[in-house]
Structures are given as C-alpha cells and as structure tokens.
C-alpha cells in the first residue's frame, strides 16, 4: 500500500475572467447562430469564474495551424510539467535522482519523443529511469495515473512520479460552431500537476492507495473524445454524459467498495473530477452527497476551470493542504473520460 507523499501544481500566466470570455464568445458564436444569446448562459452554468491559459485572449481572434498549436503545446507542456515537478519534490524533500519511474499523462497534444523524455533531460533524472507515457484517457487520466503509479510502487525502494498536464485551450476551433465547442470554450483551461508516491511506510499521516478500478461502459464510446483533423483536435462532448454518470456511478462504486467489504456510507472524503456544474450535480445525485462533500471540487472548478486529467490532482493537492483526516478514514478519488470510462482510487489514512 504505497503512500501519496506530495503534490505540486502549476498554471500558465494568462488569467481570464469568465464574464469577459462569455462576452467575446457570444460575439464569435453569433457567426454560426442566428441568436447565440440563448447559448451563452452556459458560461454561468458551468460554475467557472476564472481560468489560466498559456496564451492571451487575443490569440483566439485569428486562425492557427495544427503545427503551430502543437508546437505551443510541446513548449507549455514541458514548462508547466517541470514547474509542477519541482514543487512536488521540494515539498517531499526528494531529489530527482531518487525517482525510479515517471508516468506522464496528457491528451491535448502530440510529441515524439514523448514529453517525459524532454523532462528527464531537462531535470537530469537518472538516465535509467523507467517511464510510461499515457495518451487518450482525457479527464480520467489523473485518477488512472494515480492507480497505475500505486501498482508500480509495490516495493519499498520505489518512488514513482506521476505527471499530468493538459493545454486544452489550444484545441479551440474558430470555425466550429457546434454546442460541444461552446461548452469546451466555457470550461477548458491549462495546467499541470505532479504527484509523488513511495512504496515504503515512512511517510506517516499521508494517504495510502488501497486499490483502483477502471471501467468502460459498453455503448458509450461516442460520448467524449477528439476528432482529429487537418486543423487539430476537435472536441466531442455529448449532453448524455451527466445522465450516464448519475445512472451508473452508484452501482459502479458499490461494486468497487464491496471488494473491501466497504459501503458508500463509510467513505469520509470525496476527491472527484468536476467536469462542469452538471457533472457535480450528477455526482451528488448518484452518490447521495450533501453539504460540503464536494467543496474542494467546486473550488478548483471555480478558480481553475477544467484542466482535464490534471484537475483531480489539483483537488487532491487542495484537499491535502486543507483537511486533516483521522487515521483509518477512507477517501475516493474519481474521474471520468473517453471510453466512456470511470477511474476509481480508494485511499486510506
């Protein structure tokens, strides 16, 4: 049962106010709709107040090639990942040469060699470090990476570093006037998170990863993802996503917890990826949550938007800095992504 030792995060420099983005998007989407005013309330409903992007708002006023977008992705993915890693390792007082395995998660750009190779060179990791680049998990990638890191940290000497970075804002398509692109425009933001897991038990007071579970629900493969075109990555969002989560989440989680003779009522803390306001509502209905159960998820959504795979790790960082769980308490870390898939991680203090 490896421990989560520390978390570090990083965001780019351009902070945008949601109301400003709403105004500009309303003008832009009028080009594709006779009346976009009935669509712009989406910017209020998603419950985002501010976001950080790697480019200024003016960048979106003109067209950009896939090559230009992807070059920007590579630059910012490296920069933000390195910043998050440094913060994570400084908090843990761990040197880069101690890391035995690097897991890199991202779905918003392409790079070969993968970004983790660039990171290893830049920060001078052990040249024999094992590495696992992961692509295609979308918003589920942070939770999935956490489960994978825990499985790799089975020996006491292992120190596994998980890095999730998304530069989703660069995927905006100016000539795509579908509602799914409007929803993405109201939500997407950029950020990176790094999590250190250790196989030994010397880190007292830190949560242990007990188990993880991946699920793909049949017949839902078209709910979320990217269409790849000559212009880049075009978002796929289905309005059915909250319904699918609300319908399936309770049974899915009950089966997972049942492997450890646990019930949902015995889970004390919830670290859930907030895909948007409707997703949070689906969580509350599907799991019968009340009060402040999702307060950290709501805070990250308001202040940072949806950073895809990195978001749930931002929530984890905030939770660990604000809460002091009692020994023996349980927590669930969860996220959902293309597939349509669920990733669950069981924690215990």
Task: Describe, in short, the structure shown.
By secondary structure, the chain is an alpha/beta fold.
Key structural traits:
4-stranded mixed beta sheet, 13 strands, Peroxisomal Thiolase, Chain A, domain 1, alpha/beta, 349 residues, 10 helices, 2 domains, 24% strand
Tell me what you see in this structure.
The structure is a single chain. This protein is α/β, with parallel strands linked by helices and 349 residues long. It has two domains: 3-198, Thiolase/Chalcone synthase (Peroxisomal Thiolase, Chain A, domain 1, 3-Layer(aba) Sandwich); 208-348, 3-Layer(aba) Sandwich (Peroxisomal Thiolase, Chain A, domain 1). Helices cover 36% and strands 24% of the residues. The protein has helices spanning 18-29, 42-45, 66-92, 115-123, 141-152, 179-187, 241-258, 277-287, 295-304, 311-322; strands spanning 3-10, 14-17, 50-53, 101-105, 130-134, 159-167, 190-198, 208-216, 224-229, 232-237, 269-272, 330-337, 341-348. The strands form four sheets. The protein has a five-stranded mixed β-sheet, with helices on both faces. A four-stranded mixed β-sheet has the order 8-13-12-11, sandwiched between helices. The termini are close together. The model has no long low-confidence stretch (mean pLDDT 91).
């Amino acid at each position: 049962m490896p421990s989560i030792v520390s978390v570090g995060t990083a965001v780019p420099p351009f902070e945008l106010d949601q109301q400003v983005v709403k105004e500009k998007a309303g003008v832009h989407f009028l080009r594709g709709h006779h009346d976009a005013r009935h669509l712009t309330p989406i910017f209020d409903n998603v419950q985002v107040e501010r976001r950080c992007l790697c480019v200024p708002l003016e960048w979106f006023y003109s067209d950009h090639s896939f090559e230009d977008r992807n070059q920007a992705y590579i630059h910012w993915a490296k920069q933000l990942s390195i910043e998050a890693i440094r913060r994570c390792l400084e908090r843990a007082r761990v040197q880069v040469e101690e890391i035995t395995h690097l897991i890199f998660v991202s779905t918003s750009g392409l790079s070969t060699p993968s970004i983790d190779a660039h990171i290893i060179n830049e920060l001078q990791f052990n040249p024999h470090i094992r590495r696992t680049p992961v692509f295609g998990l979308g918003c589920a990638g942070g939770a999935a990476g956490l489960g994978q890191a825990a499985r790799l940290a089975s020996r006491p000497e292992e120190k596994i570093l998980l890095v999730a970075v998304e530069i989703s804002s660069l995927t905006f398509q100016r000539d795509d006037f579908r509602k799914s692109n409007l929803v993405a425009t109201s939500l997407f933001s950029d950020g990176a998170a790094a999590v250190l897991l250790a196989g030994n038990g010397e880190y007292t007071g830190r949560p242990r990863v007990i188990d993880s579970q991946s699920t793909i629900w049949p017949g839902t493969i078209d709910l979320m993802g990217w269409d790849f075109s000559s212009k880049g990555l075009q978002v796929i969002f289905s309005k059915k996503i909250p319904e699918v989560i609300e319908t399936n989440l309770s049974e899915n989680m009950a089966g997972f917890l049942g492997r450890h003779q646990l019930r949902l009522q015995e889970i004390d803390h919830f670290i859930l990826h907030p895909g948007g306001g409707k997703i949070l509502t689906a969580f509350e209905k599907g799991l019968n949550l009340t009060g402040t159960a999702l307060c950290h998820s709501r805070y990250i959504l308001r202040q940072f938007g949806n950073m895809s795979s990195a978001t749930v790790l931002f929530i984890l960082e905030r939770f660990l800095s604000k809460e002091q769980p009692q020994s023996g308490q349980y927590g669930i870390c969860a996220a959902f992504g293309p597939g349509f898939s669920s990733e669950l991680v069981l924690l215990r203090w």
